[in-house]
Design brief:
By secondary structure, this protein is of the alpha+beta class. The chain has helices at about 10-15, 25-30, 90, 105-140, 180-195, 210-215, 215-225; strands at about 40-45, 70-75, 80-85, 140-150, 155-160, 165-170, 200-205, 235-240, 245-250, 255-260, 265, 270-275, 280-285, 290-295, 295-300, 305-310, 315-320, 325-335, 340-350. The radius of gyration is 25 Å and the shape is globular. The N and C termini lie far apart (about 60 Å).
Length: about 350
Amino acid sequence: MAIDFSNTFALMQTLEKSKAPASFLLDTFFPVTPTPSVQNYIAVEYRKGGRRLAPFVVKGARGVNLDRTGSKVDIYQPPTMAASRVINPEDIETRGFGENIYSTMTPAERARVLQAKDLRELQDSIINRKNKMAADILTTGKTVIKGYADDGKEVITDTVAFDWTQEAKVAKSWADAGATIFDDIKAASEQIQESAGEVPTIMICGKNVADYILNNDQIMKWLAIPSASNLSLMGLQPRITSPQVMRIGMIQSLNLEVYSYAETYTDDDGTVKPFLDPNDVIIAIPGRGRQLHAAVTLLNDSTKSFETFASAYVPQYSAGNNQLALTVYSRCVLAPEFVDDWAVIHTTTTA
């Protein structure tokens, strides 16, 4: 069935049914997507861990009040992401990529094929932006929002920050074969266990870190033990699981599944950069972060009135000046459930 590009609700349903691209950090650490809010502002609540002790009281006394610490609420106006594509007559007068050399397709048919492709790619660009936001939060505890006007010039900068402090340097660079890599990983895991009260189960490495691990004297000494029953410490069996993602193995003694992540993105200035620094390591409790979406308000060209849509992705079709334009909007803030859920190791930065 053909897509009705003039109907925003139909386009929203199309995006909801389509398969989103793989965004490893977003999918792993921020998979929870509550129902989008109809409000313009979103309350972002996150907590710190910690174990409180019940107070002793004298006989006959009532309970001693424990203040509710560790929870913080910040109010944000979620930034608007808007990715757009325009089709001009020149774009559809000749055959498109992949079209037969002697094609009978009309320009109108080409326009619909091109818009369907654009719809998918525009949503993908927003998901890639969310993945970049996830990377920033996981490695720095904050994400910087840069807003652009229609001319592409920067107009405003804002920061969404969380009270996160679990950023670690190492005593000896992991690039050095004599580094105590296992001890550093164990210390980060124990720090998370102490502050969050749970055992982290996943370790994400920049693309250089796998080589550091496989060339490390301490780890190779343990792996050289003849019988696995003598020391079931870890098993390293590198295997590519998806593009730019490799499962390195399992550190059984710490219950950590280890992955290498080398996916890149194209920055606003055209520079290709990695989502995760090649020398950084994230150790974390996965699956608890949230994608908080706010409503998008758009002008309906046909009714000349404003309409509000509560959805993660809101596409809008418009026509004018002999052009067809398709824009996909999204207003989102990523928020962790607990800021103690993860730690970062800068493997080549010494203390």
